[in-house]
Amino acid sequence: MSHVAVTAFDTLLDGADPASGPFGAAVNAELDRREDFPAEACAALDSLGLPAHYVDARYGGRLRDMPELVGLQRAVARRDLTVAVAHGKTFLGAAPVWLAGRPDQAARLAGAVRGGAVVSWALTERDHGGDLLAGGLTARPVSGGWRLDGEKWLINNAGRSRYVCLLARTREGGGPRGFSVFLVDKDRLAPGAYRVLPKVRTHGIRGADISGIAFDGAVVGDDSLVGAEGTGLDTVLRTLQLTRVLCTALSLGALDHALDIAVPYARGRNLYGRDLATLPRVRRVLGEAAAALDVAGTVVDVAARAIHTLTPELALVSAVTKALVPNLVQDALDRITELLGVRGFLSEGFLDGSFAKLERDHRIVAVFDGSTAVTRNLAVDHFPPWPAPGGRAARTGRRCPPPSPDRCPLRPGATAPPLRRRHPRRTPPGGRGGGPPGGPPGAALPGDGRDGRAAGSGDPGGAPEHGVPRPHPQGGPPAGLRPGRALRTLLRRSGGAAPLDAGAAHPDADLRLRAGLALVLDRLGLPGGAHRSEAHDRLADGLLGPARHAPVLPAPRFREGVR
Question: What is d(CA 307, CA 241) in angstroms, rounded to the nearest whole number?
């Protein structure tokens, strides 16, 4: 089961992670100062077999369910975010091939990835950013293949990768069917056909290979085309629904790491004759951070299970998850920074500057695979089809059918079928995207937004008349996502615990449920009483030990709207 594999991997990482090892704070701090790539840490992950988990099980890999991959990525991010970003990019680059590639093409790539080959995903461009429909890199047909001209910029591992999975314009006029995805093997290109652009200096993840790649008459074979010609945008949009969920594991790992730093600091720091751990404000900050980790972890866990069991609703689920989790975690990190005081800003000295590094590294997560603004817009695009009170759907009682009980994403330990592709031009009976709830991931990944809006830009793309399915139901909000009881259901059915615990009983599950609900209600700006904040203080007791001479803080007043 997922949690067993993650626990075993975590144990292996502990064995490969002495203070002087590739994940040691001093080692990574020095690499960060020099802006050097964490090659030794990535090699250690290769030796532990992590690349096999990026490969679909149909092609000899170990990727059978997304919750497991989320847990593995979280385990790496807990130790160092730069390493997690640098190594995990291979899954992002390979995922379009698992979803839309030919079996022989996917099998070749699978063998290379299992052997340690790095794959990058090249979508963005210098002048167009995430506006996918404005992409200028062209692929023109030539005898026996395609000629690539143009550049992709701000690409992770553009220089270190052997393979580049890229989106190229294949029709002069562009449009929803004017782009295609190509898997480019740089080892097979003629000398001088491409060049790697200079590394870009960044605020966080300083050691990662953030650069770009330019092609000048690079000829690739017909076997480089991923899926049918003209289906590139559809493939990218479906892939983003997987990667948006996965990249939120980076946020979970960051907050794990932050609490690993902040809790011992509060216990051991004496200020003005008092232990920091006895101060009410400190306890409240750490209790709220623990609640934020529970809420974020539960949302990510359910979203990862939804890839397998609520596939038709994945456009909405992945957008909401990506919009919420990085910002929820960043808020917690900001408060922990205040708690640590000047030590939260030191690049050396206090734990070799590991907290300052993780805080800088995490800020990019909200931008990955669709910024907060983009993903919020995608979520809003789903609102109009939801029936208003008294509307026709409400009067007729039409509702989206619930998922199969034995494969509900809210139930820990639910079965997760392997990834499976669906032909991008094939629209299921009834015209809606996807199959019935409970289908496998990739079998019917819906388009990312209403009326063909393109993910990453909000611009029109993937028009419905071309067969890109619509993700939203026709009768009501997806089962399990109705606002009035959503979070309570999610937290209760997961035991209010960290993800991947497979339903293990937790003695503090009720407390964690109340603390999570209190956090959400506070962020919604709803007034509450002392009983709401008391749950956060009791969570702090579990982290720091019972309060000693610490008066209870007053309940927070009405907060400033939705954050």
Answer: 8
